[in-house]
Specification:
Order of helices and strands: HHHHHHHH
Strand content: under 5%
Number of strands: 0
Structural class: mainly alpha
Largest sheet: none
Radius of gyration: 18 Å
Oligomer: single chain
């Protein structure tokens, strides 16, 4: 299982990493910690290069966050509510969460886009109020890319450091990786199943 997982990521290459990182920021089942941790092991093996990997992963992260920025910028509050009511279940987003994130964004300013890149929970949803407030696109891209670059570099480096342990205890590592993905998928399905539209 350990080799199958590494082989799957290796076959996808840089484009696969870009795609996974973009999707991770739109629909959440596979966390970036798992994606880039595995990629870090491949860097340690010499199958991927560190800085190209970090750069491409960060471009994927930024692209995924642009989706939510664009939704907020295009729809605005009035048209966003019907969009969330229709599609929010599959993105596991409620309008109440949008309102809370918008309040947080407006209270703390544009710098939250940079600092929340290090938050596993808030790093994606905060892009929506950035779009709703029509934050300048260049500023949004700069803060998103800079924060993501640091976070992704740390995750890949963590995978490199842990590679000897992962190789040595590959059975345990496989269970942890598969278990992490299974837990995230289960949580996603739970959120989909228990999602409720806004009560007017």
């Amino acid at each position: 299982m350990h080799d199958l997982i590494l082989d799957a990521v290796s076959r996808g290459g840089y484009f696969g990493i870009f795609l996974l990182m973009a999707l991770e920021n739109v629909i959440p089942p596979i966390p970036s910690e798992v994606i880039l941790g595995i990629a870090g092991v491949l860097v340690a093996r010499g199958e991927l290069s560190y800085w190209p990997l970090v750069a491409i992963a960060t471009l994927g992260t930024t692209a995924g966050n642009c989706f939510w920025y664009w939704i907020g910028h295009k729809f605005g509050y009035e048209r966003l509510a019907p969009f969330i009511a229709r599609h929010g279940r599959w993105f596991t987003v409620t309008f109440e969460e949008v309102e809370k994130s918008a309040e947080f964004f407006n209270r703390h300013g544009h710098w939250v886009i940079f600092f929340l890149r290090f938050s596993p929970i808030l790093r994606t949803i905060v892009s929506l109020p950035a779009g709703l407030s029509h934050m300048p696109l260049g500023k949004f891209l700069t803060f998103t890319f800079a924060g993501s670059l640091i976070w992704n570099a740390l995750l890949v480096q963590g995978g490199r450091w842990l590679a000897p342990l992962i190789e040595r205890y590959e059975g345990t590592a496989s269970l942890i990786i598969v278990g992490s993905v299974a837990l995230m998928l289960a949580y996603y399905l739970y959120r989909v199943a228990t999602w409720k539209p806004r009560e007017d």
